[in-house]
Amino acid sequence: MNLGVGMKYTERWEVTPEMTAIAVKSGDSEVFSTPSLLALMECSAYMLAQNGMDRGMTTVGTKVSLRHIAPTPLGLVVWAEAKITRIRDNTLDFFITAYDKEGIIAEADHTRAIVNRRQFIRNANQKQ
Protein backbone atom coordinates (compact mmCIF):
# COMPACT_ATOMS: atom_id res chain seq x y z
CA MET A 1 0.00 0.00 0.00
CA ASN A 2 1.31 3.42 -0.95
CA LEU A 3 -0.87 5.86 1.04
CA GLY A 4 -0.16 8.39 3.75
CA VAL A 5 -1.93 10.68 6.17
CA GLY A 6 -2.55 14.05 4.56
CA MET A 7 -2.92 12.75 1.00
CA LYS A 8 -5.84 14.33 -0.92
CA TYR A 9 -8.01 13.68 -3.96
CA THR A 10 -10.76 15.80 -5.54
CA GLU A 11 -13.71 14.43 -7.55
CA ARG A 12 -15.93 16.78 -9.64
CA TRP A 13 -19.46 16.16 -10.92
CA GLU A 14 -22.13 18.26 -12.60
CA VAL A 15 -25.54 18.02 -10.92
CA THR A 16 -27.84 16.25 -13.40
CA PRO A 17 -31.58 15.51 -13.19
CA GLU A 18 -30.82 11.92 -12.08
CA MET A 19 -29.03 13.28 -8.97
CA THR A 20 -31.90 15.38 -7.63
CA ALA A 21 -33.89 14.65 -4.49
CA ILE A 22 -36.99 14.07 -6.63
CA ALA A 23 -35.20 11.54 -8.85
CA VAL A 24 -33.78 9.45 -6.01
CA LYS A 25 -36.95 9.80 -3.94
CA SER A 26 -35.22 11.41 -0.97
CA GLY A 27 -37.23 14.64 -1.17
CA ASP A 28 -39.50 16.77 -3.33
CA SER A 29 -37.08 19.40 -4.65
CA GLU A 30 -34.96 19.66 -7.78
CA VAL A 31 -31.70 20.06 -5.87
CA PHE A 32 -28.61 17.86 -5.43
CA SER A 33 -29.81 15.02 -3.21
CA THR A 34 -28.10 13.89 -0.04
CA PRO A 35 -27.72 10.31 -1.43
CA SER A 36 -26.01 11.71 -4.54
CA LEU A 37 -23.84 13.96 -2.38
CA LEU A 38 -22.82 10.94 -0.33
CA ALA A 39 -21.94 9.07 -3.53
CA LEU A 40 -19.73 11.97 -4.67
CA MET A 41 -17.99 12.16 -1.32
CA GLU A 42 -17.47 8.41 -1.08
CA CYS A 43 -16.18 8.37 -4.67
CA SER A 44 -13.49 10.91 -3.77
CA ALA A 45 -12.30 8.75 -0.85
CA TYR A 46 -12.47 5.55 -2.93
CA MET A 47 -10.44 7.08 -5.77
CA LEU A 48 -7.81 8.36 -3.35
CA ALA A 49 -7.53 4.94 -1.71
CA GLN A 50 -7.45 3.01 -5.00
CA ASN A 51 -4.53 5.08 -6.23
CA GLY A 52 -2.42 3.49 -3.47
CA MET A 53 -3.82 -0.03 -3.22
CA ASP A 54 -1.74 -3.12 -3.81
CA ARG A 55 -2.79 -5.45 -6.64
CA GLY A 56 -5.90 -7.45 -5.78
CA MET A 57 -6.90 -5.15 -2.94
CA THR A 58 -9.71 -2.59 -2.77
CA THR A 59 -11.58 -0.58 -0.18
CA VAL A 60 -15.21 -0.65 0.91
CA GLY A 61 -17.08 1.97 2.87
CA THR A 62 -17.93 0.96 6.42
CA LYS A 63 -18.96 4.17 8.16
CA VAL A 64 -19.94 7.75 7.35
CA SER A 65 -21.07 10.76 9.34
CA LEU A 66 -22.36 13.41 6.93
CA ARG A 67 -23.59 16.99 7.41
CA HIS A 68 -25.40 18.33 4.32
CA ILE A 69 -25.08 22.07 4.95
CA ALA A 70 -26.36 23.87 1.84
CA PRO A 71 -28.51 23.09 -1.25
CA THR A 72 -27.14 23.00 -4.78
CA PRO A 73 -29.37 23.48 -7.85
CA LEU A 74 -29.45 21.45 -11.02
CA GLY A 75 -26.62 22.19 -13.49
CA LEU A 76 -23.97 23.41 -11.04
CA VAL A 77 -20.61 21.68 -10.68
CA VAL A 78 -19.95 20.16 -7.27
CA TRP A 79 -16.70 18.72 -6.00
CA ALA A 80 -15.52 16.76 -3.00
CA GLU A 81 -12.02 16.76 -1.56
CA ALA A 82 -11.10 13.68 0.47
CA LYS A 83 -8.15 13.79 2.85
CA ILE A 84 -6.68 10.79 4.66
CA THR A 85 -6.69 11.54 8.39
CA ARG A 86 -5.66 8.16 9.82
CA ILE A 87 -4.38 4.77 8.69
CA ARG A 88 -4.63 1.86 11.11
CA ASP A 89 -4.54 -1.88 10.53
CA ASN A 90 -6.89 -2.47 7.59
CA THR A 91 -8.84 0.82 7.79
CA LEU A 92 -8.49 4.28 6.32
CA ASP A 93 -10.18 7.34 7.83
CA PHE A 94 -11.02 10.39 5.74
CA PHE A 95 -12.34 13.90 6.22
CA ILE A 96 -14.25 14.99 3.13
CA THR A 97 -15.44 18.48 2.25
CA ALA A 98 -17.87 19.11 -0.63
CA TYR A 99 -18.30 22.41 -2.43
CA ASP A 100 -20.22 24.23 -5.11
CA LYS A 101 -19.34 27.64 -6.54
CA GLU A 102 -20.79 29.37 -3.48
CA GLY A 103 -18.68 27.45 -0.95
CA ILE A 104 -18.94 24.45 1.37
CA ILE A 105 -22.08 22.34 0.95
CA ALA A 106 -21.16 19.35 3.14
CA GLU A 107 -18.61 17.75 5.44
CA ALA A 108 -18.17 14.10 6.32
CA ASP A 109 -16.03 11.72 8.30
CA HIS A 110 -15.70 8.44 6.43
CA THR A 111 -14.04 5.08 7.11
CA ARG A 112 -13.09 2.51 4.49
CA ALA A 113 -11.86 -1.04 5.10
CA ILE A 114 -9.07 -2.50 3.00
CA VAL A 115 -10.12 -5.91 1.66
CA ASN A 116 -9.01 -8.54 -0.81
CA ARG A 117 -11.34 -7.91 -3.77
CA ARG A 118 -11.67 -11.58 -4.78
CA GLN A 119 -12.41 -12.75 -1.21
CA PHE A 120 -14.89 -9.91 -0.67
CA ILE A 121 -16.86 -10.88 -3.80
CA ARG A 122 -16.69 -14.56 -2.82
CA ASN A 123 -18.17 -13.73 0.60
CA ALA A 124 -20.94 -11.68 -1.00
CA ASN A 125 -21.79 -14.41 -3.50
CA GLN A 126 -22.15 -16.98 -0.71
CA LYS A 127 -25.36 -15.21 0.25
CA GLN A 128 -27.13 -16.27 -2.95
Can you walk me through this structure?
By secondary structure, the chain is an alpha+beta fold. It has one domain (8-125): Thiol Ester Dehydrase, Chain A (Roll). The protein contains three helices and five strands; from the N terminus they run βααββββα. It has helices at residues 21-24, 34-50, 117-125; strands at residues 8-14, 57-68, 77-88, 91-100, 103-116. A five-stranded antiparallel sheet has the order 1-3-4-5-2. The longest helix has 17 residues, at 34-50. The model has no long low-confidence stretch (mean pLDDT 97).
Q: What is the element string, with H for helices and E for strands?
A: EHHEEEEH
Structural class: alpha+beta
Large-scale geometry: globular
Strand sequence of the main sheet, in spatial order? Answer: 1-3-4-5-2
Average pLDDT figure: 97
What is the CA–CA distance across the termini? 32 Å
C-alpha Rg (nearest Å): 16 Å
Characterize the main sheet: 5 strands, antiparallel
Strand content: 35-45%
The multimeric state of the shown protein is single chain
Number of domains: 1
Keywords:
alpha+beta, Thiol Ester Dehydrase, Chain A, 128 residues, single chain, 3 helices, 43% strand, five-stranded antiparallel beta sheet
Brief summary of the model shown:
The protein is of the alpha+beta class.
